[in-house]
Write a structure and sequence with these properties.
The chain has about 290 residues and is an alpha+beta fold. The chain has six helices and eleven strands. The longest helix is centred in the N-terminal third of the chain and has 25 residues, at about 5-25.
């Protein structure tokens, strides 16, 4: 092999080495570190809805510039170790450990007198307080953030002592679920879940629609409300969805069926009357039918 060939091969080798070094510098850890030079405020521990943001519960942590999004708190915006003016502000939602703290997760202007509960209500929804006790609140195990069904138990004001509608015999009392999968916002004046220990409360605040608020206002006058605690994440099926109603007759499926019988007649257009040991089925004349008194 002559000298000129060796020089060509040596030059090619040098070029290959230079190219390899350039490629390595582009993908080296040092280059990747430069992309994480920005620091953002993140949670050092899990913080719950309603909990106040404390300096000891957060830290500054490097964050990729390509992963930045609106609302995060950047260290570069607070020079000379200046602290953000957000501490002692309640959280609008739960924040997990290592998650960036964002403006969207905090209650705005809460120190200026803005109501915390009002700030946490979802758009179009209403907060309603319900009187409860240890029995109607699942033994005190209902906590903020839980989902519950609301059951109304009441004394039906029917025209007879006992009524028969189809195969269903109705006396004086009835019970039914009037609202399903309702979010619990607060228990007494606590907006956060302070553990899962039983807490006997007097008032539970729930989040419902405007129609649901009307229904609950009426239902509290009709009888006693009970809460049924739902499994976390459980969803209603199409068959279990409750149609919102706001009238006494509409709130009670029992009374609605009775009204249909009394006004339109039908196969069960009769009233079963108990008089001591005597039981009688008294026919009920549909409305609009001519004749004497029913």
């Amino acid at each position: 092999m002559n000298r000129s060939v060796l020089m060509v091969m040596g030059g090619a080798l040098m070029v290959a080495i230079v190219v390899a070094l350039l490629v390595q510098s582009k993908v080296s850890p040092k280059a990747r570190t430069a992309d994480t030079s920005s620091q953002v405020l993140v949670a050092s521990k899990q913080m719950l809805l309603g909990e106040k943001l404390k300096p000891e519960n957060v830290r500054w942590e490097p964050w990729p510039s390509g992963g930045m999004y609106a609302g995060v708190y950047k260290r570069e915006d607070y020079p000379d170790d200046q602290k953000p003016e957000i501490f002692d502000t309640p959280l609008r939602r739960q924040i997990e450990s290592g998650e960036p703290v964002t403006r969207q997760a905090l209650i705005p202007d809460v120190k200026g007198g803005k109501n915390f509960l009002a700030a946490t209500i979802s758009p179009g929804m209403r907060a309603v307080g319900l009187r409860i006790n240890d029995v109607t609140s699942v033994g005190g195990f209902v906590a903020p953030g839980d989902a519950v069904d609301i059951i109304l138990s009441y004394q039906a004001n029917l025209p007879g002592a006992t009524q028969a509608v189809g195969e269903m015999l109705i006396g004086r009392f009835a019970s039914q679920t009037i609202l399903s999968n309702v979010k619990v916002m607060a228990v007494d004046q606590s907006f956060k879940d302070e553990g899962r220990e039983a807490k006997i409360a007097k008032v539970v605040t729930v989040e419902v629609t405007r129609e649901g608020a009307e229904m609950l206002a009426l239902a509290q006058q009709m009888g006693e409300l009970s809460l049924a605690l739902r499994r976390i994440g459980e969803k209603d099926t199409a068959e279990s969805v409750i149609t919102p109603l706001t009238t006494e007759a509409g709130t009670s499926e029992v009374i609605r069926k009775l009204n249909e019988v009394l006004t339109t007649g039908g196969p069960a257009a009769s009233v079963r009357v108990y008089n001591g040991n005597i039981i009688q089925n008294v026919p009920v004349r549909p409305s609009g039918q001519q004749g004497g008194n029913p």
